[in-house]
Amino acid sequence: MQFTRRRFIEIAGTLTACCQIPAWAVPWSQGEELPSLEVPTGSVDSHIHLYDDQVPPVAGATLTPPTALLADYRLLQRRLGLQRMVIVTPSTYGFDNSLMLEGLAESNGSARGVAVVPPTITDEELSNMDRAGVRGIRFNLSFGGTKIEELERLASRVGELDWHVQLVSPGDQLPGLESKLLKLPCPLVIDHLGQLAQPGGVASEGFVALSRLLATGRVWTKLSAPYNTSKSGAPEYLDFGQVASELVKRRPDRLMWGSDWPHPTMKSKKPDDAKILDLMAIWAPKESDRRLIFRDNAVKLYRFDT
Length: 306
What we know:
By secondary structure, the chain is α/β, with parallel strands linked by helices. It is 37% helix and 12% strand. The protein has an 8-stranded parallel beta sheet. β2, α3 and β3 form a beta-alpha-beta unit. This is Amidohydrolase family protein. Pfam families: Amidohydro_2.
């Protein structure tokens, strides 16, 4: 039986009435309302993390959120109307990709993965990850992980698997990294809209560098985690939205939407994911652009079945 959005609402309403529980309550997410914006069928959340208190964090880990499992995330999927996801190994676990790989196995083909790998990883290990659904490796210059010195060598190896490199770094580092990133022998994904420092946004050197990278047609960035850099704050994130809107005008074919659930950098009050999703109606007012950003770009990059 295929559940429609309306049928989900009906079931949730019945559960609420009978059991007196919030219809759309989701762990590590505020609010219980559905988003006003309906996403295209087959939409992809391009950035989530999984955590488990039973898995020890790497020594010196900065972010150590409580348990947030795939079953918890499925509730957010249902609330937002999404069908697919990209599970990214967080900095918390160093080179331990076990939670991400378990999530891929549990997803029944609805997920792809991004791993954090050591320079000593073998070709066999990479091939096994590829069969499991991994499509990229992550370099985190903000919270640690694989060293930037290994970037070109590992990029060459994963490029043979048709993978990409995913980079998270402070926005003010992008101009200095630009020439190195342009030489990579594989596609590149830049996390969280380049984490451009605010105020500054579209007037910053980081924005200029990010724009040039996107213009190559080999680089993508994610519309995710506006709370990481916004100074204007929730619920509108106006400064982040200004950057997002400008990039939508320039390269909607190189943007992807991500929730960043369970929002590991937000250690107190979590954001309302439905309200953040609804901002896409402002940032990308054309339905054709939203189809690219919510679905088509990620389906192509992560090689989801069409």
